[in-house]
Amino acid sequence: MKEFPHPVTRSNKCLICIYHALITGLMSFASVGHHRVMGSDDFQGATHMMPFEEATIGYGDQHDTSLVARLQEAIEKGEVNLEFVDDGRGYLLSLLEKLNIPVDSQVLVFSKTSFQRHKISPSTPRALYFDDNTYVGYVQGSDLLEISAVDKSLGGVFYTLEQNPGKKPEIIRTDQCLECHASSKTMGVPGHLIRSFEVDEIGVVDLTSGTSQVNHRTPLKDRWGGWFVTGQHGNQLHRGNLFGKAAYEKQRESPNYLGNLQELKQFFNLSPYPRATSDIAALMVLEHQGHMHNFITRMHYETKLMLSTYGHLRYLKHKIDAFLRYMLFVDEAPLKHAIHSSSSYEKAFRNMGPEDSHERSLRDFNLETRLFEYPCSYLIYSESFQSMPERLKSKIYNKLWKILTGENNQPEFSKMSFASRKAIHSILEETLPGLPDYW
């Protein structure tokens, strides 16, 4: 897809939550200017808010330059046209095509966690589509498509696209959604949300029943409450495909009675959706990258504030360690049985990234004992990671190099095997431009 420069227009409309989620962490980290040694779960889910509306960051005053903003600029200039299809989906497929988002990334959520909750239920689930930088939400019968992008400087930026064929399509930025999308649940920055709770027969959430700590560290048994899940996962339990008291009671009596499904026709009419699946591999990728995006934004903001206040980054040492633990999947919940995708998502995801001369990629799935064969986040290639302040990025690269070469012997990184470290180092050395010479 061609590159599009410029920001989109803003609106006072509140954006629908881009996904049914609350990514949260486990402990608050120290205020800027102070630090302390944390446990293994340290600040990966910071709870105090960053002053992102103040001048140092200036979230509300800055124009976004995300791919979504550049697409809107191209639409305004007449360089790109979105096609409206009168089948209930409107601009959905055309928008996914222009943003290079694979349709096979489709995942379906039926909990009533959007302001469009009256349109969402187990019989009319909300569909989400995503790639490394952008998320699109589709609700049956809605006159809006939901869009969220990860801007290289601002973090999460939110938009709507009206489903109206009678006028020129316009992707509109809205900041009112920050009431939900900038909280302790998003690491105190504009970000993205995922959670897992029990729901009743019509999708109403029981907030006392679940967990909001959903990322790659969350055991599968605690994931996907309020979501549909397709794909094979053996005897491993999860909370997907269940709604209503009777369903949860039967799950206790007959574990996995709604697990290991290949499609979802027993639950609802599939025809409004481009795919018949809510793929388990796509869900696992979504959970990793949502928190990773928030973490990148948090580190970016922390750096700006520290440099502005102190002129140095010495207080970031333990935060960089925590960031690398997440990036390297150190605390990933292990798989007990093999996972098998229910769609072509694995292939679509693999095709999005570079590979080395041995045909290895950070996008290679493992799905036997863990998510990826080479446990280092593919978001290291993303525009948001690569646009982090150079002084921060150089510290991350230096620490990462020491971990991968074995020079760093901190106990928290000892879980990584020598073979994994060596492979990741080799893949990055060949495929990631701009690495320091000592690599």
Task: Write a structural description.
Helix content is 26%, strand content 8%. By secondary structure, it is of the alpha+beta class. The chain has a 7-stranded mixed sheet, with helices on both faces. Helix 5 (280-309) runs antiparallel to helix 6 (317-327) and helix 9 (390-405) crosses helix 10 (418-431). Mean pLDDT is 88; it is low at 1-7 and 9-42.
Structural class of the helices, strands and pairings?
A: alpha+beta
Low-confidence stretches: 1-7, 9-42
Report helical residue fraction: 25-40%
Principal-axis shape equals globular
Mean pLDDT across residues: 88
Biggest sheet, open or closed, and with what strands and sense?
7 strands, mixed
Tell me the distance between the termini.
Answer: 31 Å
Give the strand order, joined by hyphens, for the main sheet.
Answer: 1-7-6-5-4-3-2
Please tally the β strands and state the result. 7
Helix count?
10
Q: Secondary-structure element sequence?
A: EHHEEEEEEHHHHHHHH
Radius of gyration: 21 Å
Q: What is the percentage of strand-forming residues?
A: 5-15%
